[in-house]
Amino acid sequence: MYFKNGYKDDVAIIGMGCTKFGERWDTGLEDLIIEAAFEAFQDAGIGPKDIEVCYFANTNAPNNCSGTPVADALKMHGIPITRNENWCTAGHVALINAVLAVKSGMCDIAMAIGAEKLKDKGFGGLGVGRGLNPVRETRRDAPGSFALIAEAYFKKYGLTYEQGKTMLAKIDVKNHYNGSLSPKAHFHNVITVEQAVNAPLIASPLGLYDCCGTSDGGAAAIVCRADIAKKFRTDPIYVKGFGCATDSMTPHYRSRNFDWTSFEALRSCAKMAYEMAGIKNPREELDLAEVHDCFSITEMCIYEDFGFCERGTAWQNVEEGFFERTGGLPVNVDGGLKCFGHPVGASGIRMTYEIYKQLQYKVDNPKRQLQDVHMGLSQTFGGPPQIASCVILGNEDR
Amino acid sequence: MKQGIQAIGAYLPYHYLTRAALSKAWGGKGGKGEKSVCGADEDSVTMAVEAAMGCFRFIPRDRVDGLYFASTTGPYAEKSHSSLLAVACDLRDDKVFTADVMTTTRAGTSALKLALDGVAAQPVGNILVTAADMRNGYPKSAQETGFGDGAAAVIVGTGEELLAEIDFFTSVNEEINDYWRNAGGSYTLHAEGRFCDTEGYLREMKLVLDKLFKETNSQITDYQKVVLTAQNSKLQGKLAAKFGVTPEQLVDTLLLNVGDTGAAQGLLGVVQALETAKAGDRILVADYGNGANAFTMTVTEQIERLADRSQIGRYLETREELDSYVRFLSWREIASAEPGAPFKLPASTSQTWREQNINLRLHGSVCRKCGAASYPISRVCDVCGSLDEYEEVGYSDQICKLYTYSIDQYAGRSDAPLIIQAIAEAKDGNHLYTVMTDFKKDEIKTGMDVEFTFRKMHNLGDFPNYFWKMRPLRRESV
User: Fold this and answer.
1) Per-10-residue mean pLDDT for chain A, 398 residues long?
2) What is B3-331's CATH topology?
């Protein structure tokens, strides 16, 4: 139990912004911050001078820049702005910090902003040596280390390589279709299962369409005390709960009770958030989710660790279309990381932006608006098995 | 006091080029046999570690008191290789005496002589002598075709466990520029061929053999096996003929199927001779390089401990042809491929020094309180939470099971892009995460046996960084 006196929708989101994601060659980090922040300011009906505390999510800006890119871009000088670089979850961590700043009574209005300019770094999308150890993790890369989950999962649940590949392909096809309807996504191409299965291998069994791209992007959220939220707008979105759990830097130290099909960071993060939000059965109670599909296998793993389905049944659920936009629990209805790419610090807030807009029935393309939605979850996962974070939002307060 | 060879080990790299392919690459025809080629992640130090690990089949590491490294191609011009090797071999720093014997192709047997003198002076000691080479000849030269990469190691000691007693050792010295490589030079240079053969090799080998026969009052027919190192088979044959060595006596120093392994050839010949010997055999060895060494051995009953487990045979059986000469040129930095994606890792001499037990010795920890194992060394136990209550445990010679893996198409170097990300499960249930090398990708399966192999990871920080990879089993163990 994290809040002794309980947590009951004490904080609300009153404004959000999200840039166009993609190869933004003509756009700098500060431009991305401005684009995301000013959409959020406009959405909330306030300006930069109204922000009392700000949290910045970014993993790749040069020279340990702290919060200064935000201060400089938005001319928000003289207030606390701190930067976090919690890998893929940095955006969620910034948002959680903003929620905590308001919940603690430190301030009434706080902002979280994530922005990442990967295309200035010469990243082709892959790259090696992801860890911190100069020799032990020399050839570690993202596709290769997430792919380790797939082989272990197929073996544990008796899937042939072909069955496993097809399951992953269906996740790719779903997310690409969803992305085709999202104006702000990087990729808009619709693909077939056949295309996904036959695409060039990156790290077996993951092919090209199982991996997300490298993009630039930014997203921002403005939060305030729930009891004053309606002063800013009629449809604030309530923060129902959040979770965060850290594990090992590398799989090295996870020598026991770790079989590569399930991650403690994911399970703990989900438990924390569900308890806060009072969710007993996420499969029934959530109306939509944005989860960390850096690779298709990651999305599959999250279905199970977040209780969207029973352990070992992700395959059948994918087969039945349970996570499609018309299914029982639509996942990644904006196209996910698969179509937005993964500008690391921005992703968590970008995913939350989708939940926020869906719950307000205000998504940018009416064709993709879900109906009768009340509660949604956004979630990121760095690793494996480093860190997981999530936020649960609802459009009704308790 | 009996002194001699307590243990033997050899190493031959996974890759080879056929001489026909080398010849064809330059528009030529013909070419017999193969040239052994070490991988992009290997060098003379890593090959020497492999050969040394063969020796630990016979003598446990804690009984080794000294380590010598012999080579003309160590990765450092200044800095001890033997110190690095001693740590990779998991020998005790407070016990082991280390020395490098460098720059001559005779270095392997010269180091053997130094070890013999050492154990004679200090009769309790065992000295591990390693020799490895990976020399370059100019592209299209006879040296490029003739040279091969490989390593061998022996443990020299005293007592009743000797595989072979060394009865006599002698040598001659000669100052001559027949083959040489200048400091900083990439290729072995040579004088006019006939000068090299007549005034160098044939003359010096004759001098040392005549001297040996005279001093031991023996003749060629007294020896069941004769090891004659040489630059090529033709020259070896010429010398053998001159002394009346029969094909049955002449030991194959792998010139045809591996190549001239430089400083390693003499000891590889010793290993080859012992792996095919029976008790009572007498062996004569002559090794060339600015003069020559010659010695004689008598094989003991202990040779039965080998029980037909030939490392050389096993390594030859488990090789794979390298698909292109161009790849070889890039691996040797003769014509380097485009550099791959940069590493996102810091390089640090102090961190490398501090973490040597983890990275070079492949030590993990086992909790004294609850027995939980961890790799790398874990100061706080993952299971019971106790602080600094652990014993270090070595994994480098363990055979593990492949737990999960991914064949990663792009994570390697641009001239060797394919690698396997892999998790191994050790016998104690511990998981170790590294990458695999020297594999046929179609043969990789979850649950297969894998062993650790010491490899060079990169040159970040402008020094070679080493760690352990996994591979399908190649090393013959007893």
Assistant:
1) 86 98 96 98 98 96 90 97 96 98 97 95 66 81 92 96 97 98 97 98 96 94 98 98 90 72 95 96 98 97 98 96 98 98 96 98 97 98 90 94
2) Peroxisomal Thiolase; Chain A, domain 1 (3.40.47)
Identify all chain A residues contacting B382, using CB atoms and an 8 Å cutoff: 253-256
- The interface predicted TM-score of the complex, written ipTM, equals 0.91
Structural domains of chain A ordered from first start: 11-119+212-393 (3.40.47.10)
Q: Which chain B residues are within 8 Å of A139, Cβ to Cβ?
A: 408, 411-412, 419, 421, 435, 457
Mutate to test the interface with A, among B348, B421, B434, B439 (most CBs of A within 10 A): B421
Let me know if A92 is a catalytic residue.
Answer: no
Q: In what order do the strands lie in the sheet with B291-299?
A: B97-102, B66-71, B127-133, B150-158, B3-11, B164-173, B291-299, B282-288, B225-228
Where exactly are the structural domains of chain B?
3-331, 349-361+396-472
Residue A310 three-state SS: coil
Of the candidates A183, A385, A235, A193, the one whose C-alpha atom is nearest the C-alpha of residue A301 is A385
- Which pTM value belongs to this model? 0.94
Q: Which of B347, B374, B460 sits opposite A253 (nearest CB)?
A: B374
Residue A152 token pair: 């272990």
The residues pairing with A13 across neighbouring beta strands, listed in sequence order, are A223, A237
Among B residues 401-430, those touching chain A with beta carbons less than 8 Å apart: 403-412, 419, 421, 423, 429-430
Mean pLDDT of B170-175: 97
Among A298, B427, B428, B445, CA closest to B436: B445
Q: What's the confidence (pLDDT) of residue A128?
A: 62
CA distances from B223 to A370, B53, B70, B241 (A): 90, 29, 27, 15
- Quick one: B207 exposed, middle or buried, by C-beta within 10 A (0-12, 13-18, 19+)? middle
Kind of pairing between the strands at B449-458 and B431-436: unpaired
CATH architecture of the region B349-361+396-472? Beta Barrel (2.40)
Q: Do A256 and B372 touch (CB under 8 A)?
A: yes
